[in-house]
Amino acid sequence: MDRPFLSSVSLAGLERIASEIIPDDAYAYYMTGARDEITLRANVAAWSSWYLAPLLLTDTRELTMETTVLGASVGSPVMIAPMAAQTLAHPDGELATVRAASAGGHVVVLSMNASMPVEQLAAEPGAHVWLQLYLSSRDEVTANLVERARAAGAEALVVTVDAVVESPTTHRRPHGPIGLPSALSFPMNDGTPLDDGITWATIERFVAEAGLPVVLKGILRPDDARRAADLGCAGIVVSNHGGRQVDGTIATAEALADVADAVADRLEVYVDGGIRRGTDVLRALALGARAVLVGRPVLWGLAAAGQAGVARVLELLDSELHQDARQCGVTDLRAVPRDLVRLSTTIGGSLPPILPVRGR
Ligand SMILES: Cc1cc2nc3c(=O)[nH]c(=O)nc-3n(C[C@H](O)[C@H](O)[C@H](O)COP(=O)(O)O)c2cc1C
Known about the structure:
Radius of gyration: 19 Å
CATH class: Alpha Beta
CATH architecture: Alpha-Beta Barrel
Number of strands: 12
Distance between the termini: 29 Å
Largest sheet: 8 strands, parallel
Number of helices: 12
Bound molecules: flavin mononucleotide
Order of helices and strands: HHHHEEEEHEHEHEHEHEHEHEHE
Strand content: 5-15%
Structural class: alpha/beta
């Protein structure tokens, strides 16, 4: 893709390009959600139920994109969500994602099902890498991965707790499961079954032994958030796995405020799901998030143009956030006032149309 085009393409444009070039099965794997995809769609729509009430006539010329997460200074509150198997989108896969993110000081949460190992990716200059993992049914397998993350310089461990069993396949592929290429490699997952019986006691032990800050991903309720804080977690991600696990779960834009009100003074709260505009990031910060994680849009950029495509996605979100924050009188992204957003009880968000998936 030529540079002038890339510098003006929108996120919707990248989504369209990705839909045309990602192979059918990989596209279905990336874009679909569980069952009827209610949550997948609600995630996107729900952000637009929060309307902005801009604070005017404030001097915002000093506003920068910088913030801190887990005590580290980073270039933006936009982080990249863990997503498996990124070489399906582009041969450069996670390496391109990490390089694009590092250039702007964005944190990347690597999936334990990444196509490349944490040792290679965390060594990229300027990289801020957190490693996401599912806990294994064998403690020594988890311990080995944690040790690798620590030695490689990962800054945090993100334990995903909302995927205890295999997710249900989507109705959009009625004639069979999605088949991913057998040549895919997962250098951080040896195939040992995951622990499908994890409890708070498992998390308590894990936090005590991790040696790195632990973030729980998949929290949707204030009581679960409080337990995470009680056990010494450093952060939580308000997430429903991008609508890929339990269809019908609450949209993250709706869950965030209650969770943040319960615990944001005890640990850092992050959120993901359906964030497609800098305005959504601003809404999330106002509702109590320290930072956000962006999922599928990164895959669109990656598929369209590798590292440059991911960089374009991040640039779009950052520049929109900066513009909107300034227009709304925000002087510090770590202190976006809660009353900047109001829930619309009259208009609400409406579900966007589903994009067709090609093949079978
Ligand atoms: C293709 C794909 C693979 C994913 N793989 C993982 C994973 O390995 N671990 C995980 O915790 N979440 C995974 N997720 C969920 C994301 O981390 C994130 O919660 C979600 O995609 C955010 O929603 P968004 O895509 O609407 O931005 C995956 C999501 C997608 C789309």
